[in-house]
Write a structure and sequence with these properties.
The protein is mainly alpha-helical. It has one domain. The protein is built from three helices and no strands. The protein is rod-shaped and about 110 Å long.
Amino acid sequence: MNDEPPARDPIGEDARIDALDARLKAAKEREDQRNCPQGTVESDASYRIGSKVLAELLGGIGGGAFIGWVIDQFAGTAPWGLLAVMSLGIVVAFRNIIRMSSQRPE
């Protein structure tokens, strides 16, 4: 048969093919990261912060309304105790929300 060496190197030893293979692997990794589910750390942190804000707001309004209602029942000052303490609860809730928003993310 023919004892001459082949004119081209085998495919596995070609530098262009190796570079193309490395670029394909990197592109596949980027595509997998881009298509990963949205349950990432950033969305979980945003969900937790949103839950805290909602809890502060509902707690301030609800807690103020309840405490004001109790004061009105014992003091007989309806509806002024309810309105005053609920307003105070709203102010405190917004102060806490502003304080949370000014903190650096963890």
